[in-house]
Amino acid sequence: MMATMVTAWAVLAAGFTAVALFRLSRAKRFESARLRRRPRVLLIRPVDAPTPLELENLATPIDYPGELTHVVVSPFRPRLGSANVRWLASDPLSRNRKVGHLAYALTTLDAEGAAAPEPSIDERPERLQATGDQVVLCVDADVRVDSALIGALVDELKGGAALSSAAPRPSPSNSIAGRAVRGLLVQSHHAFEVIDVMSAGARAVCGKAIALSPAAAAELVKLSGCIGEDLELSQVLHEKGLPVTLARATANVPQPEQVSGRAVVERFTRWMQVLRAHRPGLFPSVPLLFAPTPVLMVLASVVATPAVAVALSTLVGLRIALANRQDQRGGLRFEWLLAEGLLWVCWLNALLQGGTVHWRGRRFELKSGGRMEPAPVHGEAG
Which bin fits 62, alpha (ψ -120 to 50), beta or left (φ > 0)? Predict the structure, then answer.
C-alpha cells in the first residue's frame, strides 16, 4: 500500500513537471514593436529602510531611450548616489505601507503635474502628447532596474495589458540560503515564468516590478489594507476582464554575499500565508506538487521497490530538466532541491502560525482576500 502511494505521488508530480516543460516550450514569446518614440515613464521606488545594496540599486544609471522620471518614496531621505533620482517624503499610516507609498506618490505627482505652467503654443502639442503617453512603473528597491526591464514592461502595457509584471531573478549566491532563494525563484515550479504557463484563471503576479495602467493603478490604491496586494489586484482585474501579462524581461535582484537563512524563512513563510489567504484551494498543492521531492526521497528509501525507484528517478530527471531550462549557467542545476526543502519549512510554519502574520514589526490577523486586521495584544483577548 505504501509503495503504491509513493509511486502514485511521484508519477503525479512528474506529470506536473512534464506539463510545465511542454507549456514552456510552446509559450509564445512576445515580440515588441519598434516604437518610433518611447513613452514617458514614471518609475516609483517605494522603500522604508534601504540596505546598502538597495541604495546601490537605486543609484544605478538606467539607459532608457526616452524621458524617465525616477522617484524614491520613503519616510527619510536616503543617501542617493545619483543626481537623476528624486526623493519624495512619504510615511503612510496604511497597513500595507508599500501601497500607501504608491498612492501618495501618484496623488502628489499628479497634483504637481496639474500645477505645472501652461506650455507655450510651440511646446503645447508635444507636451500634451507626452502627458497622455506616460507609463507608471512600480519597482521594489531590491531590484536592479535596467533599460531591458523598463522596455519590456512598457511594451506589455502598450500592447494592451492592464497590468504587467516581471519575474524576479535573484543573482547566484554562495550561501546556502541564497542558493535556495535562486533555486526557488529561477529553477523550480515556483519560478514565475513557470507559474505563468501553469496558471488557470487569475494570473499569478509578483509585485517586485509591475507596470500599471490607469485602471490597475485605481484598483491598487484601494488595497492599502491588504497583504499580497499583487495577487488581489490580479484577481480584481481578471474579474473585470482586463488582461494581466508577464513581461519578457526579468527583474534582476542582486543578493548579498551572505544571505540570512532566518530572514529567508520569514519572508517565504509570509508568501505561504498570503497564498493561503488569497488562493486557499492552491495551498495544499505546495507539498503535493511544488515541493514533493525531499519527502518522496525519504519514503523511497524506506519502501525501496523498483516501481518507486523508476517513478522517483523520472521525477528528479524532469525537475533537473526544468531547472536547466530556466537557469542556463551550464552543468546540472540542483538548487531547486534546496528550494523544495525551503518550501516545506515555510509551508509548515504557515500552518503553525495560522491566520496571524508578522510583518514589518507588527502582527495582523489575515482575513479572506489578504485583508489585514490588527492582532490583539497578548493577554488582551478575552
Answer: beta
Q: Whole-model pTM?
A: 0.89
HEC readout, 364-381:
EEECHHHEEEECCCCCCC
Is there a contact between 178 and 254 (Cβ–Cβ < 8 Å)? Answer: no
For the cut 90, the answer to whether the pLDDT of residue 334 exceeds it is: yes
**Which residue is associated with the grid cell 531573478?**
169
Say how many C-beta atoms besides its own lie within 10 A of residue 325's C-beta: 17
Q: Kindly report the number of other CB atoms within 10 A of residue 62's CB atom.
A: 17
The radius of gyration of the chain's CA atoms, rounded to the nearest angstrom, is: 22
Element (H, E) at 135: strand 135-139
Instruction: Please tell me the distance from the alpha carbon of residue 161 to that of residue 242, in angstroms, as a whole number.
Output: 7
For residues 173 and 254, is the Cβ–Cβ distance under 8 A? no
For the chain, percent of residues with pLDDT exceeding 70: 90
Compare 123 and 145 and report the one with higher pLDDT.
145
- Residue 145's alpha-carbon distances to 3, 249, 290, in angstroms, are 49, 11, 29
**Cα three-residue angle 257-259-262, rounded to 5 degrees:** 165
Asked whether residue 112 carries a pLDDT value surpassing 70, the answer given is: no
Cα separation, 132 vs 186, in Å, equals: 36
Contact in structure between 133 and 40 (CB atoms under 8 Å): yes
* Whole-number Å distance between alpha carbons of 311 and 214: 49
How far apart CA 335 and CA 187 sit, in angstroms, is 7
Q: What angle do CA 373, 374, 378 make, to 5 degrees?
A: 135
Instruction: For cell 537557469, name the residue.
Output: 327
Q: Chain-centre distance of CA 171, in angstroms?
A: 15
Query: How would residue 79 be classed by pLDDT, with cut points 50, 70 and 90?
Result: confident
Terminal C-alpha separation, the chain? 47
Mean pLDDT of 245-274: 94
Query: What is the bridge-based pairing of β-strands 41-46 and 68-74?
Result: parallel
**Which is it for strands 163-165 and 41-46: parallel, antiparallel or unpaired?**
unpaired
Q: Which class for 36: exposed (0-12), middle (13-18), buried (19 or more C-beta within 10 A)?
A: exposed
* Position 88 pLDDT exceeds 80: yes
* pLDDT tens digit sequence for 185-243: 999 999 999 999 998 888 989 999 999 999 999 999 999 999 999 999 999 999 999 99
